[in-house]
Design goal:
With 255 residues, the chain is an alpha/beta fold. Helix content is 35%, strand content 24%.
């Protein structure tokens, strides 16, 4: 009997008034695999992830984790689901007033009720895993470079050894070299945990580096999905235009 995908979205739709953002998203990610969803701004990437996280409630459709429906979960069931997740936010989303180690350990202390000493030890361990020395733990986010803040965000995302990790534009705002460093760390830490990952990005260098599979979203629908190695031979004119970054093609910028 074939195991259910780790994460599955079936015909997920979401509108805000007359704005039909998700028009029937269908995706499936096998356990331990990395899926990257590419697409331009306003195509529905962020709303899709927010729907999985329960921050946005889909109008219709199914979102399953380990074969279990999640769209109607509340209370303790929702909390248990959230403990399976880790998230690297686009802007880092660090708490300015907390030292680095408390940022990393936030979910351990607030979500799991772990004592502060044990949580700090784990935070330092995770900081080392993303290439930051122990002394970084007592600094404030404002004392870090953009690349270091992104590493702290990654350390927080993996702090509780999540089963599924979400990456929201993980290389935005980074120079090409630091972006490649972050991409390598994403691969190393995710594979090290055996985690399943869902990423959204418009950075093709990042997509090629971290993805097992790539899907493209356009106007709220998945218009192509395949192996990362096949992206240059997709046979889809929308995908071809996007990965080449060309102004000419079927995708028109709405001004």
């Amino acid at each position: 009997m074939t195991a259910a995908p780790k994460l599955r979205l079936d015909n997920v739709k979401k509108s805000f008034g007359n704005n039909h953002v998700l028009r029937g998203i269908n995706l499936a990610i096998e356990k331990g695999k990395s899926l990257v969803v590419i697409g331009g701004s306003g195509t529905g990437k962020s709303v899709m992830i927010k729907s999985v996280l329960g921050l946005v409630h889909p109008d219709s459709g199914s979102i399953q984790v380990d074969g279990e429906e999640t769209t109607g979960l509340k209370g303790k069931e929702r909390d248990a689901l959230m403990r399976k997740f880790g998230m690297l936010f686009q802007g880092g989303a660090l708490f300015d007033s907390l030292p680095v180690w408390e940022n990393v350990a936030f979910g351990l202390i607030q979500g799991k009720g772990m004592n502060r000493k044990e949580a700090r030890d784990i935070a330092v361990e995770k900081l080392r895993a993303v290439g930051l020395p122990a002394r970084t733990a007592d600094l404030l986010p404002a004392e870090l470079s953009g690349g270091m803040q992104k590493r702290v965000g990654l350390a927080r995302a993996i702090a509780a050894n999540p089963e599924i990790i979400f990456f929201d534009e993980p290389t935005t705002g980074l120079d090409p070299i630091m972006a490649d460093v972050i991409n390598d760390l994403i691969v190393e830490t995710s594979k090290g945990l055996g985690a399943t990952t869902l990423s959204i990005t418009h950075d093709m260098a990042s997509a090629r580096k971290i993805a097992d599979d790539i899907a493209m979203i356009y106007k709220g629908e998945i218009i192509w999905q395949g192996k990362a190695a096949d992206i240059d031979h997709s046979g889809n004119e929308y995908v071809d235009q996007f990965i080449k970054g060309s102004a000419e093609g079927p995708i028109r910028m709405e001004l």
